[in-house]
Design goal:
This protein is an all-alpha fold. It has eleven helices and no strands. The chain has one domain.
Amino acid sequence: MSLTTKSNTNTTTKPFDRAASPFVPPLPRGRTLRLGLSRIGYETRIYFRSGDQVFFTFLFPVVMLAIFSAAFSAMGNVGEAPDGTGGVTQAAYTLPGMIAAGILLSGVQNLATDIATEKSDGTLKRLGGSPLPVVSYFLGKMGQVLVTSMLQLALLLLVAHLVFGVALPTEPERWVTFAWIYLLGIATSAVLGIALSAVPRSGKSATAVIIPIVLVLQFISGVYLSFAMLPDWLQNVASVFPVKWIAQGMRSVFLPDSFAAQEQSGGWDLSTVALVLVVWAVVGLVLTRFSFRWVRRS
């Protein structure tokens, strides 16, 4: 009787601890994966039901591409020769930055605010009191980021090509480069978003804390402004963070090779792009391991 009372008390005062419970066998790995896959569908449906989230993380890069392309179209092509030949349109020049912005918004801003809100309103506490493995929870979150980000990217490329006449790459090697930069960038952004969710003190403050960080990183990383326009010290600061390298990698895919001379080192430096993103992915995983809790510590 006393054993039953103790068990009931524990389940109501702290999250469910499967490893510490002698009564519940561990979930098989296959079931953990199936639960994670089912969470992807659930998380994706919840995402598209939130109008503000869809606008500020899904449609925002498309809207910004349209604004920048229309606002600066009168300035002519970027990088054209003195005789007026060559160069690329304002839409084509803006597209790589908007792709990088979409990756940042889908991973960092989306997950950081979403998880912080769930932690504040008690959703995580309820999930922590259930048999749902934390791995399944993270599979659902990261799978939702991947699905929505790919849909966003497809829409962005379609609008750029069909509405603004941006010529997309035809060389297969450029699309291979695009694929690994995108996958590495979205994975890095997702784990950093999970880690950053520990910073806001409440769900109400999550947006106020996360959005300024994301905006500053975008402005100093060559997303909205040409990276070459920034002073050297600010370029050095931006080079510490992954957004600058995602944008630079995407420029290597969508811009002519002549634009590489405008980069800080005078080249695309794709090996450095990969190295920086891998390092930040590892940093994000370590921070997530030590900062994530089902219930926020007071």
